[in-house]
């Protein structure tokens, strides 16, 4: 599993007592040679990844990287668990692992919580045929039936084109949000390497000399502590638009 990653997946591994191995996911992705070294041990059955708008770093795999990972999965018999939680908010409509997969090695998960509202706990799932029967049997033990009323409501929402209207509105709001961040950065340049996120700005703190003081600065930074299974290295932090100007002024004063 990639590290850092979605904190609930970290919790799930610990709560279920599952065996796992980790690989570092950075601003530029992962080391494919290291990934192959994990796969070739024969101990890895599933590789959980957020290929598009990775949480928390925002990185998206290129199509070349996706094809390389798919080749490794097919070669070593590993299933890729593709968490496409922000797929509806990708204006470029990049191809998914599932779309590129020709060997049925991808378990595709798509959430409606982010594109609509968090309380809508409905997920679309596409499974390889080889594991479909076992998955359905196991799901029926834990959860005999999903909420049919919510499923019907979502179906009507999609069929009426309201879902698409909402998706386009979210994309427009996201573009406006990014423009506001760019304007504030133009007025007050950031002294640290930084990268855009769909809900803020990612600061690269790997060369920042005063991490301890920054952690206790009350600036409202998100250091993603729960995104790591081990100790948080405090290499990155997210700042929201609302706190951006205050954070930029703080960093400028500290580094001048």
Please, could you describe this protein's structure?
This is Putative transcriptional regulator of pyridoxine metabolism. One of its GO terms (molecular function) is pyridoxal phosphate binding. InterPro entries: Aminotransferase_I/II_large (IPR004839), HTH_trans_reg/aminotransferase (IPR051446), PyrdxlP-dep_Trfase (IPR015424), PyrdxlP-dep_Trfase_major (IPR015421). The protein is α/β, with parallel strands linked by helices and about 260 residues long. The chain has helices at about 5-15, 30-40, 65-75, 95-100, 130-140, 150-160, 160-185, 210-215, 240-255, and strands spanning about 1-5, 25, 45-50, 80-85, 105-110, 125, 195, 200-205, 235-240. It has 2 domains: about 1-145, Aspartate Aminotransferase, domain 2 (3-Layer(aba) Sandwich); about 165-255. About 40% of the residues lie in helices and about 15% in strands. It has a 4-stranded mixed beta sheet, covered by helices on one side. Strands 7-8-9 form a 3-stranded antiparallel beta sheet. Helix 2 runs parallel beside helix 3 (about 65-75) and helix 7 packs parallel to helix 9 (about 240-255).
């Amino acid at each position: 599993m990639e590290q850092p990653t979605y904190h609930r997946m970290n919790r799930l591994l610990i709560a279920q007592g599952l065996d796992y191995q980790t690989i570092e996911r950075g601003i530029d992705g992962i080391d494919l040679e290291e990934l192959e070294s994990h796969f070739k041990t024969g101990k890895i059955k599933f590789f959980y990844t957020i290929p598009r708008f990775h949480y928390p770093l925002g990185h998206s795999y290129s199509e070349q990287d996706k094809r390389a990972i798919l080749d490794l999965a097919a070669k070593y018999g590993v299933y890729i668990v593709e968490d496409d939680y922000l797929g509806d908010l990708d204006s470029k409509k990049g191809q998914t692992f599932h779309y590129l997969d020709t060997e049925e090695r991808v378990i595709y998960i798509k959430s409606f919580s982010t594109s609509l509202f968090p309380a809508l706990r409905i997920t679309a799932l596409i499974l390889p045929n080889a594991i479909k029967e076992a998955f359905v049997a196991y799901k029926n033990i834990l959860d005999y039936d999903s909420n049919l009323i919510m499923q019907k409501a979502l179906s009507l929402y999609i069929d009426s084109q309201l879902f698409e209207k909402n998706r386009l509105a979210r994309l427009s709001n996201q573009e406006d949000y990014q423009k506001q961040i760019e304007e504030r950065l133009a007025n007050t340049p950031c002294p640290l390497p930084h990268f855009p996120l769909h809900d803020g700005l990612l600061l690269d703190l790997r060369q920042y000399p005063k991490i301890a003081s920054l952690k206790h600065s009350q600036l409202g930074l998100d250091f993603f502590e729960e995104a790591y299974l081990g100790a948080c290295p405090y290499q990155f932090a997210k700042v929201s638009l609302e706190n951006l100007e205050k954070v930029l002024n703080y960093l400028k004063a500290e580094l001048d």
